[in-house]
Amino acid sequence: MSTRAVYRHIVHTIRHAPEGGITYEAFCVTGGCGAESGPHAEQEAAQDWALRHTGRTGHDLFRRVFTDHAKVTRAE
DUF7848 domain: which residues (predicted)? Predict the structure, then answer.
């Protein structure tokens, strides 16, 4: 007796899920500083943190991270 498998390919889409929101963060990457803004719901809060950090330390290079949530749904 042999086992059989049937595969069916189904098209899916992936889109931003507004109910999940977006998180904004800034990380100082100047000279291995490692300071970070922490997650914020507003982009301006992360940017303000970076501006204040530059004012205090003179550090001027940051990595910005924008995180969103995505939902996958069947296209059928």
Answer: 1-75
> Which candidate, 1, 49, 43, 47, places its Cα nearest to that of 22?
43
Cα gap 13→70, rounded to integer Å: 10
Q: What is the pLDDT of residues 33-69, one digit of tens each?
A: 999 999 999 999 999 999 999 999 999 999 999 999 9
Instruction: Quote the tokens at residue 31.
Output: 């000279």
- Report how far residue 73's alpha carbon sits from residue 13's, in angstroms, rounded to the nearest whole number: 6
Sign of the alpha-carbon torsion through 73, 74, 75, 76: negative
Q: Are strands 12-16 and 70-74 parallel, antiparallel or unpaired?
A: antiparallel
Query: Tokens standing for 38?
Result: 């922490």
Q: Rounded to two decimals, what is the model's pTM?
A: 0.76
